[in-house]
Design a protein that fits this description.
Number of helices: 5
Strand content: 25-35%
Number of domains: 1
CATH topology: Cyclic Phosphodiesterase, Chain: A
Helix content: 25-40%
CATH class: Alpha Beta
Oligomer: single chain
Largest sheet: 5 strands, antiparallel
Strand order of the largest sheet: 5-2-1-8-9
Structural class: alpha+beta
Length: 187
Amino acid sequence: MENMVFLVTIPKGPLYHCCKKIQESLWKEYDLGMDMLPEIHLTIDAFHYESLEELEKIKMALHEIISKVDPFEIRANGFGYIPHPHNCITLHIVKTEELKNVYTLIHQEMKEKGFKVRDFCPEEIVFHITLAGIHGRGWSEEESIEAFNKMRDFKLKEMALVNELELWYPELDPEKKLISRMMLETE
């Protein structure tokens, strides 16, 4: 059986707080469920594994690769929409040269080490923070388009410093999702 784990970062400061307020507002207005909101995060990459032994190797390889990564900034620039069947409202994260280089380093080195990575090349990947649409009550395409149209012209332009990455299982429960945390340190 093949599984996936995700390398993510949780933005800090104003970017996180803006995302959280927007997420809570969307979930409340459209009654998407409030028992456990998904953690605000930016997925950097994802890796397939077949056994716990392979997962441990992924974790060790990531620690080695990430030791070469300095803290970096991410910058939001408006909202996006991923259409049916996902019906997701997202916050667009600018693919700066710095973010693209971090992604390329991790993606290529994991691939070279023989791990199965997602099939996005650096030019294709679109970085975003999902605010609504994956978890909770399945909302209709009409609802999601209505929600997106309400916010599409609002230009949220916040930045956040990324100084740690986390490896997650695809779980909502914070007690069950964290596999490993990796700090980014300036040399």
